From TrEMBL, chains A, B:
Species annotation: Imbroritus primus
Keywords assigned by UniProt, alphabetized: Oxidoreductase
Gene: soxC
EC class of the enzyme, as a word: oxidoreductase
Keyword Oxidoreductase: yes
Name the UniProt record assigns to this protein: Sulfite dehydrogenase
EC id: 1.8.2.1
Top-rank lineage group of the source organism: Bacteria
Length: 442, 442
């Protein structure tokens, strides 16, 4: 039994494509991969020699390890990660960030490092945050939810009582309505551009169940939801939505909510702007009209070109974002690469994502990764070839209503230049001849 | 506009069921809810008065808060949880645990606190662990994967190169083959009984893609996978499985693997016993026969009644577990409760879960929560009524192959009493007249 040791390729995608890949030997001569290729070449010789030696018999564990066994294989590792594990010390980039230059981290937000993440689930430690008066520390044994107003009964519930109602778990996205704002500066990384979106599995009681329990009067048209934070963050939600898919959520990705996500109880309003999913939920006031609260008059309206404000723009419209390669990434070799990203729609399922590498002149369909769930992040990916030329990478998503993600020009045409929230425009990333990737709108 | 303030119920499920619930006034008189009901009653008066007052106008935020506003609403909260968030300080029970009495936490395992969790995703900090020589600390820049043996090329890959291959994300369960062992003691909590199972979204490169890249010889029948830990943990996997759904996984729930889950690279072998998903993966040796390594001769075989060992029992068969109510939980009121749990099968999708409250004499179908994914945890739930009598709660799952989860008696009949691994028997939980829940097999 024998096999031939061939020179290793530096283009793992080359065999996956019908496009021609560069001469590998020529690529190595050009030294394009720099230090990495060199380091691997140095390592390769003894390991492949060992591979040849061991290939004559099945591997049986430590007995036939190659000679250059690393330190971590020669030694006993650390203990089990109890009580609660944390990321590797090498993952220094996979962290939440505050808006650059922000001095006061209470009325603030932090972004999910989308350019470091994969798939449709965001770890709880990295889910984006937005607070209006900081993160309260709430004792769940003392927390109460009151439901009153146009109901048959006014009721107060403990957390234990809420959790006794039939509960469901659903995977949904959550996005801040200002992700991003219309205004420059637009930021360098995917997190800085649009890091106020995350995905998670949310567990809770369908609000409908509890509303049926307290009984709604015929005149009930809205619910004004109020948080227990210092801002008493308050939003109005149409009763139709409350009876559809809104949750009284107490868990996120399996465990109880994190403090910054509303522990011990938040509203979760699927597909609507994130600020409506009131955190630290203490009160649901059933009314016949919206509250016109501070947060829905002074904030969270859209100033139109004619000077009037568009109010109650609840739904987060269909959107997508390329997360790899994205700003501050660098292509270090020519050949086939993969565009990866996420798409989502507040109106239902994503039905397709197109990608372009030439700034929108030509498009091709990306592959959607299963599962494709309603009002959840959906992963997409598509191969592309880079030969050292400048590229402008773009993605545009479509949802099951037929809506297609717009360009920024189309958005400005529809809403004027003074709008702040609900910017779901196509985000371009520029690839320079050097391979460096930067924000195509900056 | 007015509404009637009625006495609050202590049974939130009562309106969800056709079964009769107890007189609420009578229940409160009996004092069954103890301190909780008292505390709520004390709180209820001023809040409901406030509710009456505020019901005459829509809520407008802080202006019409009830008088007993808690401290956390009167004050500014803490800062954003950057760079990486952690659970609430009140969630002291949602932690991983070592086997009780274990002195040495390297060759060890820790369990997922299933009785505290919801849904089909386990947070990374709580995913169960099993280590044979502790947790190595691996520098991803230095880590390499070698593929050799019956291949056209022997190749060595850096992590950067592996991540450049087309990648996918999939939600799967992972379970230790000894979850639980056949032997007593069986433990008190769901974690102690069967906490070596977790669910996550795994991102990586289909192994098939990389095998096609290096080229398999016709004689290739098995792959012997080896870890870079001090135990050089090594298992053999049939080539058919490797070409089906095995992943070279580098992310879990969106972020890079945690150290205790194989950072920076692990094999993920969906539906097979967890120890085959080799962590800290450094080598794939393509062979024509299994390695018969230490871990598949001395360990991970099943001793049958006739003294022979069953080898290569790869698949984790269909199973379910009631997580709420479960051992150490307590029913604090009579009325309608909800059984909640998880089901999974290494052979595909769960098609149904039955539950029993009378020790298996009668069964009824539970509701499965969407999404129901192949080789992933599936949530189920079913209401039941408790009137202070003794109950024996059970669940039994079925998968798309028609397999039905067995009883322990059926398993012992098939495999004898000396088997250790692959116990997927029905787990009973006993509810005492006091409401206390204990292990029905202990």
């Amino acid at each position: 039994m024998s096999h031939e040791i061939r020179e290793r390729t530096t283009d793992p995608l080359a065999d996956q494509s019908t496009l021609t890949s560069p001469g590998r030997r020529g690529f190595l001569r050009r030294g394009g991969a720099g230090a990495m290729a060199t380091a691997v070449a140095a390592l390769a010789t003894p390991e492949i020699a060992a591979a040849q030696a061991s290939a004559t018999a099945p591997a049986t564990g430590a007995d036939n390890l190659p000679p250059n066994v690393p330190e971590w294989t020669r030694s006993l590792g650390g203990p089990t990660a109890v009580p609660y594990g944390t990321p590797s010390k090498y993952e220094t980039k996979a962290v939440r960030s505050l808006y650059p230059g922000l001095k006061e981290p209470m009325s603030a937000y932090s972004t999910t490092p989308l350019q470091e993440l994969d798939g449709i689930i965001t770890p709880n430690g990295l889910h984006y945050e937005r607070h209006h008066a900081g993160v309260p520390t709430i004792d769940p044994a003392q927390h109460r939810l009151m439901i009153h107003g146009l109901t048959d009964k006014a009721m107060i519930f403990t957390m234990e009582e809420i959790r006794q109602f039939p509960s469901i778990s659903r995977i949904y996205f959550m996005e801040c309505s200002g992700n991003p704002s219309f205004l420059p500066p637009y930021g360098k990384t995917a997190a800085e551009v649009a890091g106020l979106v995350s995905g998670a599995s949310w567990t809770g009681v369908p609000l409908r169940t509890v509303l049926e329990h307290v009984g709604l009067k015929r005149s009930a048209k809205w619910i004004v939801a109020e948080g227990a934070d210092g801002a008493a963050m308050t939003r109005s939600i149409p009763i139709e939505k409350c009876l559809d898919d809104v949750l009284l959520a107490y868990s996120q990705n399996g465990e109880r909510l994190r403090p910054e996500q509303g522990y011990p109880l938040r509203l979760f309003v699927p597909g609507f702007e994130g600020n409506m999913s009131i955190k630290w939920l203490r009160r649901l006031h059933v009314t016949d009209k919206p509250g016109h609260t501070r947060e829905e008059t002074a904030k969270y309206t859209d100033l139109m070109a004619d000077g009037r404000a568009r109010q109650f723009s609840f739904v987060m419209e269909c959107k997508s974002l390329i997360t790899s390669p994205s700003g501050t990434h660098k292509l270090t070799r020519q050949g086939i690469h993969e565009i990866r990203g996420i798409a989502w729609s507040g109106r239902g399922k994503i039905t397709g994502v197109d990608v372009s590498i030439d700034g929108g002149r030509t498009w091709k369909a990306a592959v959607l990764d299963a599962p494709v769930l309603s009002k959840a992040l959906t992963s997409f990916r598509a191969p592309f070839e880079w030969r050292g030329q400048e590229l402008m990478l773009m993605s545009r998503a479509m949802d099951e209503t037929g809506y297609v993600q717009p360009t920024i020009e189309q958005l400005i045409q529809a809403r004027g230049k003074f709008s702040f929230y609900h910017n779901n425009a196509i985000q371009p990333w520029k690839v320079a001849a050097s391979g460096e990737v930067t924000n195509g709108r900056a």
